[in-house]
Amino acid sequence: MSLIAQCKPRALRASRPVQVYRSTSSDPYVNLSIEHFLLQRTHAAATVLFQYVNRPCVVVGRNQNPWLEANLQQVRRGLGPDEPVPVDLVRRRSGGGAVFHDAGNVNWAVVCPAAAFDRDRHAEMVVRALQALSPGTGTPRVNARHDIVLDTPGSGGGSFKISGSAYKLTRLRALHHGTCLLASPHLGAISALLRSPAAPFVKARGVESVRSPVRNAGADPGAFMAAVVAKFRHMYGDAGDEVMVGADALDAVPEIRAGVAELMSPEWIYDQTPQFTLSSHPTDDDPRPRPALPPNLPPNLRIHLTVRHGEIQTAAVSGLRYVALSRADESAAHDAALSTSLAGQRLHDIRDWHAVLERAAPVSAADRLHVGGWLNGMFGLETSA
Amino acid sequence: MASIARYIRSARPSGLAALAQSSVSRRVIARPFSVTATNAIRKYTKEHEWIDVAADKKTGVIGISDYAAKALGDVVFVELPELGKKFAAGDAIGAVESVKSAADINAPISCTISHVNLTLEEKPNAINQVPEDDSHGGGWICKVTVSEQGIKDLDNLMTLEAYDEFTATEGEEEH
């Protein structure tokens, strides 16, 4: 490992033209906030490398829908099976799709002047770092989606994604950051974490992820980071010592602290979601055939929700069965009252749909149980036994 | 706009895209825009936003230049500015996402947001199709009221001719 300077958060404000940082924190909110600070506050002409390794987390793009991109129930349950490992849900500030991070994945970020922005340049740099390490698992290259894939020979071979890219551009500065799967012990769990049960029922504005088969590049994370630093220095010249930064940056830099608070807030994680609809049945707007609903749901059940800025804007629920009906048309009145009561509720604040149904109308016990359970499942909530 | 002309470089490795880009920078593009007020003044920023300021200099319309829209690639989402919010020149007022990039849209001049183009929520690619159209169905981003400072800020912006020259030079640097 290269010489490491004492951690002085004020070093983050350094104005030298080439700078290299590494994080000692595994907190994704902290690391993304340090990275954002480097994007916003380093000298406009500086080129900066920052590398970090996060604890397990699902990271969605700036304009994505966590209810659609992640299995939130799985995220909340964490990784198993023995010792449950918690998984954080994160919305980053850059574009692009949903990814999974853990200790076997290194995140590399390059901040440079907007005038030097190029979608492939730094992915190519990472490819050269991988080539230098030559882990022997395949041939890395940058593909048309600006991701790094590993071409592997033989039967069972093919192209596997090992690194995904995303970008954030401000007036003067450009951030290119990417993942690099090196030695993740959780590859088998990624697909389940990034697959939402609501997908067949949700139509969302914003950005949808593109699924790719993934693989570990098979290198040691520490060796990879050193190789990336070497290739970065080769491109940009003397960068001085690699500066270690971490959680103490929060105390030293109020902007980073504020960044962490923003990234951790439900307003950012959930309410930033572009508008979407959930419909139990095909609609004009979303005519896809739907999977069969569970047989224990009422046969005439129809649910249509429009969610904007994380808040239910309109709701149309019908077909529920109610108790103590005195008139035949009372069902419709209850449907209407229920729908009205849903409008204005923040989706993220709903922790149990059984309770929501119970409060809104005299829904029969069976329908409350099963419809509530179905909606809990759609939005990634646990149904307590 | 976040210096989105830089996207051009990223497109270079693909020969076809580079060809397309070079024709962009040579711009023989008909500008299918309309204007909301007679004698509106249209000015451009180096970051590729445009603003139409009405003849009375009280209101304006903001969007992304044709040149930038071509360079961006497929716009998949537009984060619109917040209604009623005040911005200084250069502040990020919203963002567009294309090809995994979230790019800030910056205020060309000091202004307050009075309308946003909700059409872009459903049809973000109107930015690709008619970026400099400030009419209904066009790719304009927002309408603003212009402050005293905003009128002064206009002096720092480019005319169409100056902007064309600016983007042509950028194109030459690229190729």
UniProtKB/TrEMBL annotation, chain A:
Positions of the UniProt region annotated as Disordered: 275-296
GO cellular component: mitochondrion
GO biological process, one term: protein lipoylation
Pathway connected to this protein: Protein modification; protein lipoylation via exogenous pathway; protein N(6)-(lipoyl)lysine from lipoate: step 2/2
Taxonomy, superkingdom: Eukaryota
Gene Ontology MF terms in the entry: lipoyltransferase activity
Segment forming the signal sequence: none
Residue ranges of domain BPL/LPL catalytic in the record: 43-240
InterPro entries per record: aa-tRNA-synth_II/BPL/LPL, BPL_LPL_catalytic, LipoylTrfase_LipoateP_Ligase
Family membership: Belongs to the LplA family.
PANTHER family assigned: LIPOATE-PROTEIN LIGASE, LIPOYLTRANSFERASE 1, MITOCHONDRIAL
Biological role: Catalyzes both the ATP-dependent activation of exogenously supplied lipoate to lipoyl-AMP and the transfer of the activated lipoyl onto the lipoyl domains of lipoate-dependent enzymes.
Identification of the protein by name: Putative lipoate-protein ligase A
High-level lineage: Eukaryota, Fungi, Dikarya, Ascomycota, Pezizomycotina
UniProtKB/TrEMBL annotation, chain B:
Superkingdom of origin: Eukaryota
Primary location: mitochondrion
Obligatory cofactor(s): (R)-lipoate
Cited InterPro entries: 2-oxoA_DH_lipoyl-BS, Biotin_lipoyl, GCV_H, GCV_H/Fam206, GCV_H_sub, Single_hybrid_motif
Keywords: Lipoyl, Mitochondrion, Transit peptide
CDD domains on file: GCS_H (cd06848)
Protein's GO biological process: glycine decarboxylation via glycine cleavage system; protein lipoylation
UniProt key word Transit peptide: yes
UniProt-listed Pfam families: GCV_H
Statement: the UniProt record of this protein carries the keyword Transit peptide: yes
Co-factor: note: Binds 1 lipoyl cofactor covalently.
NCBIfam families according to UniProt: gcvH (TIGR00527), PRK01202.1 (NF002270)
Function summary: The H protein shuttles the methylamine group of glycine from the P protein to the T protein.
Name listed for the protein in its UniProt record: Glycine cleavage system H protein
Protein's organism: Lasiosphaeria miniovina
